[in-house]
Amino acid sequence: xxxxxxxxxxxLLREADVAAExxxxxxxxxxxVALLIAVEFAFSRGPMVDVGxxxxxxxxxxxxxxxxxxxALAYALLRFGFWSRWIAYVTVTIDILVxxxxxxxxxxxxxxxxRFAAALPTAVAALLVLAVGSLRLRPAVQIYSLVLMLALLxxxxxxxxxxxxxxxxxxxxxxxxxxxxxxNTARLAMFILCGLVLIAAAWRGQYLLRHxxxxxxxxxxxxxxxxTELAPMLASGNVNELRxxxxxxxxxxxxxxxxxxxxxxxxDPALLAQVVSAFxxxxxxxxxxxxxxxxxxxGDGAFLVFGIPDPRDDDARRAIACAKAILADLAEWNRARxxxxxxxxxxxxxxxxxxxxxxxVGDDTRLxxxxxxxxxxxxxxxxxxxxxxxxxxxxxAETLGKAGEDLALWRDLGAxxxxxxxxxxxxxxxxx
Length: 432
Prior knowledge:
Protein name: Adenylate/guanylate cyclase domain-containing protein
Number of strands: 8
Distance between the termini: 71 Å
Number of domains: 2
Organism: Taklimakanibacter albus
């Protein structure tokens, strides 16, 4: 049966698991090296005449070597692409078994009862193994580690290997009290609490990681359908503000290629795609330079908005300047096209400023930015009116006034009856 494809968040979390496992493997090797340095330094400070001391040093080296090799093997497997969630359980089991066997061996070698297990350096290493394991951010592995470690410590604590000497002859009654049932129970409780804290840390880390990945993917999906200029609003968590929408004054620009049907029929698909892509690129760059956003491209046309995310006093001026910049850029492009034997690209542009509803509609899988209202309809009708008046660019008199335009440079087209609008609108064409 074929495996179901992974979702994007699951794939990212898998990458995070692999990266964490690599990090733990490297951390295990570094800890092993640090322990080896500490052991060598500790044993160098005392005489090496006792056979037991030599054996203890050798045993410590073996334990540290196994921990290092386990980390190196895990890293090598991950480095060459072999990964399984069971790798963590295998390495944890090896680490803890080595610690447990070493601790038991040290007790037997020193002829000490299990109650003295906490006095041995290996007991501290057990806590160190748990701490390193928490870097995986996998609570299940951490729980398994704690349970297995407690099982081995329980075995070690119950070793009863006393010599014939009495307690007072061995180490004294006072020392035994510090390692008696009460003191060791307190140590065990603190060990368990420390393990639980590490489990909580791993769980919290995994939760934050998963939440971060899912939130990132959610916002990525939203940005996929929203204008990129709205990304800061998404990053600041203002998605609900977009969804609730608001009424605001904006300047709107519609642009469309003229005689596009004839162009589509004359060009093969590859050349047509190149022309439309080049046109869109020029429109997008002009919008960026003048502080507007491309709400959407529709076929060989585009809808631009000025005043998003926040309205500005110069929205009308910037929309007019953007339209003029597009016309100037197209004029230069057309000169190059004519030299190459290609047809000119003619456009119609309509600009109008006014109040409109702005917001986002849809769900988390497809949230679309939209602008609604009479202002949108007027701007669209002005773009269509360029055909009737045979000009490249039409704007309303009100918009030109707010933009501070010199009307002497414009052609007065008088009061126009626009479809869907009860009152005529005074409009001007450009160039004169």
